[in-house]
Design goal:
- This protein is an all-beta fold and 425 residues long.
- Helix content is 1%, strand content 53%.
- The protein has one helix and 34 strands.
- The strands form ten sheets. Strands 30, 31, 32, 33 and 34 form a five-stranded mixed beta sheet that branches. A four-stranded antiparallel beta sheet has the order 7-6-9-10, with no helix packed on it.
- A hairpin with a 3-residue loop joins strand 12 and strand 13.
- The model has no long low-confidence stretch (mean pLDDT 89).
Length: 425
């Protein structure tokens, strides 16, 4: 290979096989000198009078959004187990890739992100596949649809973060909840862990040394801690839950709450500063306020200095957190009926943000305390009835669970109850 000016010269030192079609791919290997952009270039030629003429058109959409995906590598593989394609192309802005000049034979179709342009279907890349073995004959043109998603890392921690001064949070599959856990060589009890469906939050305070070591199963996580982080005061933030209890407001701290002085925690209405009677409870790193279900309007949570003491021994500084409560008259109810029974996970989205979700086993699901406005409805076909969306699973050859998207499906009005049927197909 050599370059002369604007010309790329390719030379071969071996003879061509007779009557054979060749496809030459330049996969992100040629870039514009000034712009730096690159493309996939494909050149097809034959050592005989005829070209292989089988082809296929593949449409790739994002499994979550149902939108076309651009710059995705689509390949034909001679077996499902292979990770490198024999033929490939890249999707355009419409999510379409056309693979041409394919030799007659059997192939499996896969798509993958190929962010590192190594033309290998790496296990962590977004991917899609069709386990059907297609037979391509000369002159044929198949049309195939694929749904792209990131495979779930069932045996790996996805994200982890130290929240100074006393928490360590990981985002990991539920299988990690069953693994043995140790902090600096000492077993961690359940009272030192806050568990959610796909996350774990550990109490790691007090931190004596300049680092700590957390062992979960066979994984070891080490965290260096600065003096400033050790001395960080306790701080609250309002936690808006998707399907929260209207009588409970949740505020989350950056440490497990060791002790609570209720006399230093007040809720006042705005703008008149009337003190509202409440019940306060500390549950691990969460501060829960109760007794507000019949209230509406603008309020502020006031926590005086020293109201909270964390496991680190640190206390909070004075803090004010405003929040809004809506009355039942200011909210609406949405009752959905599915056109056919099944296991579903139903989500309400407003301006692209998920605001409510609920499982549906059968045909009926209801959402209460919904703010007025227009909502998209997403219905996930929950094949395994685990209450969550499952992406592509290449190990078990499972497709991502189907998501049916109904944009602007319903409008909610204050103090109204809306009945709607969702036609599933």
């Amino acid at each position: 290979m050599s370059i002369k000016g604007k010309t790329l010269m390719l030379e071969w030192d071996k003879e061509w096989s007779p009557n054979t079609t060749y496809s030459l791919y330049l996969n992100a290997s040629v870039k514009d000198f000034r712009e730096g952009n690159d493309s996939l270039y494909t050149f097809v030629f034959s050592s005989g009078p005829d070209l292989d003429s089988a082809s296929c058109l593949v449409r790739v959409k994002d499994a979550l959004t149902n939108m076309p995906t651009q710059k995705i590598t689509v390949g034909l593989f001679e077996t499902y187990e292979l990770q490198t394609p024999r033929y490939f192309a890249r999707t355009d802005k419409f999510g379409i890739a056309e693979i041409k000049a394919v030799k007659e034979g059997q192939y499996v179709v896969k798509a993958f992100e190929d962010a590192n342009t190594n033309l290998i279907l790496d296990s962590l890349e977004k991917m899609a596949f069709d386990t059907t073995v297609y037979f391509f004959s000369n002159g044929s043109k198949d049309s195939i649809n694929l749904a792209l998603s990131s495979p779930r890392e069932r045996d790996k921690i996805k994200n982890n973060v130290f929240i100074a001064p006393g928490l360590y949070a990981i985002h990991a599959p539920s299988i990690w909840h069953q693994k043995e856990k140790f902090l600096n060589g000492k077993a961690i009890g359940n009272d030192e862990i806050f568990s959610a469906k796909d996350s774990l939050v550990f109490s790691v305070a007090p931190i004596v040394e300049d680092q700590f070591t957390l062992v979960i199963g066979t994984d070891t996580l080490r965290q260096i801690v600065s003096k400033r982080e050790k001395l960080m005061p306790i701080k609250l933030s309002y936690l808006e839950l998707l399907n929260g209890d209207m009588d409970s407001l949740v505020f989350e701290a950056n440490d497990f709450i060791q002790s609570l002085d209720q006399s230093k925690i007040l809720v006042k209405s705005l703008p008149d500063s009337t003190i509202i009677p409440i019940r306060v409870e500390a549950i691990k790193q969460r501060l829960v306020l109760k007794g507000l279900s019949k209230r509406s309007g603008n309020f502020v949570l006031l926590s005086a200095e020293g109201a909270l003491t964390g496991a680190s021994g640190n206390v909070n500084k004075r803090q004010q957190i405003p929040f809004v409560l809506r009355s039942a008259r200011e909210l609406g109810v949405l009752n959905l009926t599915m056109s056919k029974g099944g296991n579903y996970l139903v989500r309400l989205l407003k301006d692209g943000k998920r605001v409510k979700e609920s499982t549906c086993n059968g045909t009926k699901v209801s959402f209460s305390n919904v703010l007025p406005g227009k909502y998209d409805i997403h219905v996930i076909i929950d094949d395994n009835n685990n209450g969550e969306w499952d992406p592509v699973d290449p190990r078990n050859k499972k497709q991502p669970e189907q998501i049916l998207i109904f944009p602007d499906a319903t409008s909610i009005r204050a103090n109204w109850e809306v009945e709607k049927t969702i036609e599933l197909y």
